[in-house]
Specification:
- The protein has about 200 residues and is an alpha/beta fold.
- It has helices at about 35-45, 60-65, 80-95, 115-125, 150-155, 165-170, 190-200, and strands at about 5-10, 30, 30-35, 50-55, 70-75, 100-105, 130-135, 145-150, 175-180.
- The chain is built from seven helices and nine strands; from the N terminus they run βββαβαβαβαββααβα.
- The chain is globular, with a radius of gyration of 16 Å.
- Strand 2 (about 30) and strand 3 form a beta hairpin.
């Protein structure tokens, strides 16, 4: 599998605006910060891993430095997820000859190496198509979303705070949906209450 040139891009340049001053990416999950955990889950597959962060965010930079992920600093990260995604894809597609990029928010606490491998294996059956997890129970879409190289230029033109949603909508006919009931692809935590409940039930 690792002969295939895939890169991971984790989006970690958000402001955690709903966390009331706390940083969700620095919450502890299994003894390490959330950002470290999710990066290490991907790094275990031996593909290159990149992560966007706001320029000059030293706390996130320090946490990430404990992994082997490569940092893409984003100027004007307040412009939204779409802006950060575009900056990240532009940077790594220029510097690396990837055949595809797996794009994922950094706040999915249950995403594991096993679930990432399962998704990539499914993607590689039809590597010219976009691959997106979909909940087999309610049709909600999840992450990561894997984009073949032919979509890189489109991704670098995204703006605002909607991420790649419009790209997926426009190219829906080119998506190979990975139907699953694994909540690891769908569970993100955005508020102090959500984090407190999750930590309580997972005994971190």
């Amino acid at each position: 599998m690792n002969e295939y040139k895939l890169g991971f891009l984790f989006l970690g340049a958000g402001s955690s605006s709903r966390m009331l001053g706390d940083d969700k990416l620095l919450k502890k999950v299994n003894g390490v910060t959330q950002i470290q955990k999710i990066l290490n889950e991907a790094l275990a597959l031996s593909f290159p891993v990149f992560v966007t962060i706001p320029a000059n965010n030293n706390q996130r930079k320090d946490a990430i430095s404990k992994t082997n992920a490569l940092i893409v600093e984003v100027e004007n990260s307040h412009l939204g997820m779409g802006h950060s995604l575009a900056v990240g894809v532009n940077k790594i597609s220029q510097d690396f000859n990837f055949e595809s990029i797996a794009i994922c928010p950094s706040d999915l606490p249950e995403l594991t190496t096993a679930s990432l491998k399962e998704l990539i294996d499914f993607f590689l059956e039809f590597p010219e198509m976009i691959c997106c997890p979909i909940d087999e129970n309610n049709n909600a879409t999840g992450h990561p979303v894997i984009f073949p190289r032919k979509y890189f230029n489109i991704l670098t033109e995204i703006t605002g705070d909607i991420g790649a949603r419009e790209v997926l909508k426009k190219h829906n006919h080119s998506i190979n949906y990975f139907s699953t009931n694994r909540k690891s692809y769908f569970l993100d935590l955005d508020t102090p209450g959500e984090w407190s409940s999750w930590i309580k039930f997972n005994k971190n």
